Amino acid sequence: MKSNTVKEKLKRGEPSVGTWLTLSDPMSARLMARVGFDWLTVEMEHTPVTFEHAATNFALIAAGGTVPLVRVPWNTGENIKRVLDTGAWGIVVPMVNSRAEAEAVVRAAKYHPIGNRSVGGTVHAANFDADPPAYYANANDQILIVLMIEHVDAIRNIDDICSVPGIDAVFIGPNDLTKSMGMAPVFESPDSEFTEALDRVLKAARKHGVAPGIHVADAPAARRRIDQGFQFVAITSEVGFLLTKAKESLNSLGLGSDRVVARY
Ligand code: 3PY
Ligand code: MG
Asked: What is the CA radius of gyration of the chain?
C-alpha cells in the first residue's frame, strides 16, 4: 500500500505545499497532478464539483503521483464517508468551530475502534494501490485530517480543537475568518485581531503536535507563511494561477480587463 507522504512530511515538521482544484474537469486535474505540488485539494465546498467528478479526479491525481485531498461541502459523516470511499487520501473540513465538531470529523474519518466509518467500497483501496484488507488495516494511519479554522469561535476554542486526538492539521481560511471579524474578506490583513488570531493558532498547534496551515494568494505569501511556521500551505487554486498568468501576459501588452478576479 502506498503511504501518505503529506502526512509524513507534516509529522516530520516540514512544510507541504499544494493548491485547490476548483474545476470539475479531469484533464485539468491530470495536468495539475504533474506540476509537482505535494497535494491537490478537490474543492467541493464552493463549486459545482459532484461526487462523481471528485472520484475521477482523485484517481487521476493519485496516478499522477500527487496526494489527492478534498474539501468536503460541510462537516457531515455522509460527505466524509463518500469522499474517502471514492479514493481521497485526506479531507479538509470547513468551519470547525468547537471540540465537538472536531471530534465528529475524527469519528467519521476513522474506522473502529477510533471512529465509526462504515466498511465498504473498492475504489479507496485502488487509489492506494492496495487490496481492501490492506486498506482497512491501514486507513486510520494513512488518511489525513485537516480542520479549517475560519471563524472567531474557532479561534476562541483553538486549544480544545487542537487537543482532539487524530487531527493532523488545522488550516486557516483567512477569507471567512476576516469576514467573521466584521471585515471585508481578505487573504492578508495587518489588523491586529487577525494577526493575533494567527499567532494563537500557531501556538496551539505547536503545543498539541498538530501542523498549522493557511491558504495564501501567491508564492511570496507562501514563503512568508512557511517562514512564520505554517506547514500545510495552499497557494490559490488552478483557476487563480490561470487567471493571474493570463492577466499578467495581457497587461504586459497594455491589454486586459478586470471583469473576473479569482480568489481561490
Ligand atoms: C477561506 O479563506 O475562507 C477559505 O476557505 C480558504 O480555503
Ligand atoms: Mg472558507
From this structure: 18
* Domain membership flag for residue 52: yes
pLDDT of residue 264: 73
Confidence of residue 188 (pLDDT cuts 50, 70, 90): very high
Q: What cell was used for 105?
A: 470529523
Q: Which helix (H) or strand (E) holds 247?
A: helix 238-252
Pocket test for ligand 1, best of 176, 181, 201, 239 (most atoms within 8 A of CB): 176
What is the C-alpha separation between 232 and 19, in angstroms, rounded? 10
CA distance 151 to 176: 6
**Is 15 part of any domain?**
yes
Is 245 a member of any domain? no
CA 151 / ligand 1 centre spacing (Å): 10
User: In terms of residue numbers, what domain contains 144?
Assistant: 5-238
Number of domains the chain contains = 1
Q: Say how many Å lie between the CA of residue 138 and the centre of ligand 2.
A: 30
Residue 206 lies in a domain: yes
Q: What value, to the nearest 5°, has the Cα angle with vertex 69 and ends 175 and 163? A: 70
- Tell me, rounded to whole angstroms, the distance of Cα 186 from its chain centroid: 18
Q: Categorize the per-residue pLDDT at 248 as very low, low, confident or very high, splitting at 50, 70 and 90.
A: very high
